[in-house]
Q: What sequence folds into this?
């Protein structure tokens, strides 16, 4: 079912040739999963060359800085908070959505810094998360058979066969939307994001139903006092000039997009993907001889690797050897997404094998992708309790293996959506229709995200106090 594995081979390789070695399009000779062929290869070639000439979205030194921070997270000296939309759409590139997303991520990180006492590395699933793997190639709508929607970077959500064909213009459109998003996120975080200096304005009433409410209120009070104190001793400083670090990431799925912006930079070794600080290898594109691994092995960026069903340990070890032969610290984030009732069975063997092979990785937990289910009314959702359970189980297995869980990977939004059930506010299945926005997977909303940050920090403390 889950295929569209075709030889990519759709683009003329022009001037990358450097012997027979790796170059940004060397994957083009391989089979590629999860990317239907573009019908118009001429238009593809044109869009590719245009994208290739456009300026980068980020810089190589930012990529290197993130790698250093991830090396700290691998050691347990900092913690990775990666989060954002399941799928961004071009339409969702609005000022409100970006502000809300940055705000919730920063508030979550404040909670975690306060509760855990270590730096938090913030990485958004943002400014490029426009392409989606699917488990089925086709769907039938009103009797018409069409390719599945694969994210705005590839085709249109509109249900007709023509709109569902991969369209190369979308490579440029995605670049534009990503650039607009990054521009705004940088402006907000460069100035310290003054909104955050008022935790008393965080909307906390929802926590009243949580058994930890007292503790939570106390924590916000302390953060508030700390900010006032800092403000008093360094007047005008905190509100205006403290830059907060915020990095971007997305799944490296549409390799035409990734490779067109993959470059060498002056006075540095190697090639950099300059569309995002970090990219990840999804769970469905892990063919060891396939295009995605061929592409990822040539870039300097930190790389996430999803670890989930079919739980193929040998394949993962092969990927690690291929993507990080030098065992560079901070290079690989292993993002386990097993499902709350599978962690106990599978995680420890992965931890042991990776340790034995000497790979220095950041272990991160994605408690979202193994825990989706459809309600009786066929609404795709996730239970807050099961998400939390996967986090707890994952911490617990790492503890018993003498290993360190160095991060979490969450699908979330700063908006008041109703997509996941549970949490202190007790959203029930029959409330999902109130504000269900996602085109793809259900996300934690603002309140559920803050609550989760608090509960993650509590779990982390069990391993570190
Ligand atoms: C995702 O993170 O959006 C995703 C599709 O995850 P996975 O590849 O783990 O299924
Ligand atoms: Co998802």
A:
């Amino acid at each position: 079912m889950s295929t569209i594995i075709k030889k990519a081979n759709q683009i003329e390789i022009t001037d990358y040739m450097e012997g027979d070695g790796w170059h940004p399009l060397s994957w083009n000779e391989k089979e590629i999963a999860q990317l239907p062929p573009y019908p118009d290869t001429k238009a593809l070639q044109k869009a590719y060359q245009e994208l290739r000439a456009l300026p980068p979205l980020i810089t190589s030194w930012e990529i290197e800085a993130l790698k250093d921070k991830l090396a700290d997270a691998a050691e347990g000296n900092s913690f990775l908070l990666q989060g954002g939309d399941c799928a961004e759409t071009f339409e969702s590139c609005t000022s409100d959505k970006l502000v809300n997303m940055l705000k919730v991520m920063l508030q979550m990180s404040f909670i975690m810094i306060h509760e855990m006492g270590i730096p938090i590395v913030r990485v958004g699933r943002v400014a490029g998360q426009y392409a989606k793997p699917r488990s089925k190639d086709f769907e039938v709508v009103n009797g018409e058979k069409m390719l599945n929607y694969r994210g705005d970077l590839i085709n249109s959500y509109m249900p007709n066969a023509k709109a569902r064909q991969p369209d190369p213009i979308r490579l440029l459109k995605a670049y534009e939307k990503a650039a607009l998003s990054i521009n705004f996120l940088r402006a907000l975080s460069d100035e310290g994001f003054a909104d955050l200096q008022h935790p008393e304005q965080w909307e906390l009433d929802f926590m009243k139903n949580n058994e930890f409410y007292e503790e939570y209120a106390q924590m916000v009070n302390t953060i508030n006092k700390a900010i006032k104190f800092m403000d008093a001793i360094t007047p005008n400083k905190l509100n205006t000039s403290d830059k907060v670090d915020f990095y971007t990431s997305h799944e490296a799925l549409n390799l035409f997009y990734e490779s067109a912006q993959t470059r060498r930079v002056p006075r540095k070794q190697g090639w950099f993907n300059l569309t995002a600080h970090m990219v990840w290898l999804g769970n469905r594109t892990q063919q060891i001889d396939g295009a995605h691994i061929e592409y990822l092995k040539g870039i300097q960026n930190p790389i996430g690797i999803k670890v989930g069903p079919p739980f193929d340990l040998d394949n993962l070890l092969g990927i690690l050897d291929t993507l990080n032969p030098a065992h560079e610290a901070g290079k690989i984030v292993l993002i386990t997404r097993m499902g709350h009732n599978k962690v106990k069975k599978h995680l420890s063997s992965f931890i042991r094998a990776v340790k034995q092979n000497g790979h220095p990785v950041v272990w991160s937990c994605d408690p979202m992708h193994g825990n989706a289910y459809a309600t009786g009314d066929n609404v795709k959702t996730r239970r807050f309790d099961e998400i939390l359970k996967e986090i707890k189980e994952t911490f617990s297995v790492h503890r018993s293996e003498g290993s360190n869980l160095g991060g979490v990977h969450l699908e979330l939004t700063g908006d008041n959506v109703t997509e996941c059930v549970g949490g202190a506010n007790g959203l029930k299945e029959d409330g999902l229709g109130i504000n269900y926005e996602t085109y793809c997977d259900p996300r934690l909303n603002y309140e559920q995200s803050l609550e989760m940050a608090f509960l993650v920090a509590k779990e982390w403390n069990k391993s570190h106090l």
Observations:
- The longest strand covers residues 405-411.
